[in-house]
Amino acid sequence: MGGVSRTFTIGELARRTGVPVKTIRFYSDEGLLPPTDRTYSGYRLYDTRSLARLELIKTLRELGLGLAEIAQVLAEEVTVPRLAARHLAALDEQIRRLRLRRAVLRAVVKRESELEEVKLMNKLASMSDEERVRLLDEFWAEMVDGLTVDSEFFAGMRSAKPALPDDPSPEQVEAWAEFAELIQDPGFRQAIRAMSEQHAAALAAGEEIRPLHEYRSNWFQWNARAEEHLKAGLAPTSSEGRALAGEIAGAFARDGQNPDDPAFRRELADRCAAGNDARAERYWQLLAIMNGWTPFPSQHAGTEWIIAALRG
After folding, report:
1. What is the Cα–Cα distance from 299 to 230, expressed in whole angstroms?
2. So what's the pLDDT on residue 3?
3. In this structure, what are the phi and psi dihedrals at residue 13, rounded to the nearest 5 degrees?
4. For a surface tag, which of 42, 161, 187, 216 has the fewest beta carbons within 10 Å of its beta carbon?
5. Percentage of the chain with pLDDT > 90?
6. How many beta carbons lie within 10 A of that of residue 162, not counting itself?
7. What is the pLDDT of residue 153?
8. What are the pLDDT digits (tens) for 167-218?
9. CA 137 to CA 191: how far, in whole Å?
10. DSSP secondary structure code for residue 37 in this structure
């Protein structure tokens, strides 16, 4: 002979689960937790299966699921893992946005920003990686539009893309805001366009366009030596300056060009000066901050010393 099934009043159910009576009554009215029976006075009664069902509803609500989704789970129209995966993706995106917002607020506090700067910083920080890349691609497309340039050289220039991490630091948010303003600044765009036109003219004249990695490797070494000479108080016209200028001129001289020719050295100095824009250097420094690269040291002063040595 089977035992009598245990039943609970709505108050007992509330005490056992910690769910308020008002909430249980609401779940019942919505069809999520129908009563097992009623007393003669019309009060709702629930059995042990109702208790387990209420515990499940409570858990799913705590995980952020809506009533309609819970109804689907209870009706076995959708599985919990599928719903969980959907909510996990949404939660990850929400966390990413909250981290960005936190970084913006920290940057605002640090910079004591005014309202317009706060608006701009928040707008820029909220952009997706795809939007950031598109902004940069549009910049470089305009810089070479209508020009015949060395594709390998410019592919190297535009290959570095800004990518903020999911949890950026205030410095990275500041770097992106400054970077976005920089590549949209008419003066900077004009300067880079002029460099691109100079590059195209050199290519049309049959001059050798050195690969980016080779250029960087050699120039970094020359610049480091120039920095050392500058710190030591040596003048560009010193013997060290003449030696470095001769080495650089010799490396850039092609067949038929005399590296000791003052006119050739002045022309080379002019080319170096055209590329020694502090804003162009800042472009790479900001990319390094955003992408977590090794800090990009300033080479502006060293390059000025080299230019003076070449003209000396």
Report:
1. 12
2. 47
3. -60, -40
4. 42
5. 31
6. 21
7. 77
8. 888 888 888 888 888 888 899 999 899 888 888 888 888 776 654 445 566 8
9. 17
10. E
> What amino acid is encoded at 115 in this protein?
L
Vertex 22 angle, CA 16 and 23, to 5°? 70
d(CA 305, CA 130): 40
Q: What secondary structure letter does DSSP report for 235?
A: -
Burial 194-215 (b: 16+ CB within 10 A, else e): ebbeebbeebeeeeeeeebeee
Cβ neighbourhood burial of 68 (10 Å; 0-12, 13-18, 19+)? exposed
Decide: residue 305, CB within 10 A, 0-12 exposed, 13-18 middle, 19+ buried: buried
CA angle 261, 203, 179 (to 5 degrees): 100
Tokens found for residue 63: 């995980």
Per the structure block, which two tokens stand in for 200? Answer: 């195209």
CA 249 to the chain's CA centroid: 39
186, 139 Cβ separation under 8 angstroms: no
- Work out the number of other CB atoms within 10 angstroms of the CB of residue 261: 13
Residue pointed to by tokens 């917002």: 101
Q: 7-9 and 37-38 as β-strands: parallel, antiparallel, unpaired?
A: unpaired
Q: pTM for the whole thing?
A: 0.60
pLDDT band at 5 (very low <50, low <70, confident <90, very high): low
Residue 96 CB contacts under 8 Å (≥ 6 apart), including other chains: 166
Could you tell me which residues come within 8 angstroms of residue 183 by beta carbon, excluding any fewer than 6 positions away? 135, 136, 139, 189, 283
Look at the block and give the residue holding tokens 């966390």.
95
Tokens 């910690």 map to which residue? 18
Q: State both tokens at 234.
A: 């040596």
Contact 279, 182 (CB under 8 A): yes
Query: Cβ atoms within 10 A of the Cβ of 19, count?
Result: 20
Arithmetic mean of pLDDT, 77-83: 82
Report the C-alpha gap between 113 and 272 in whole angstroms: 37
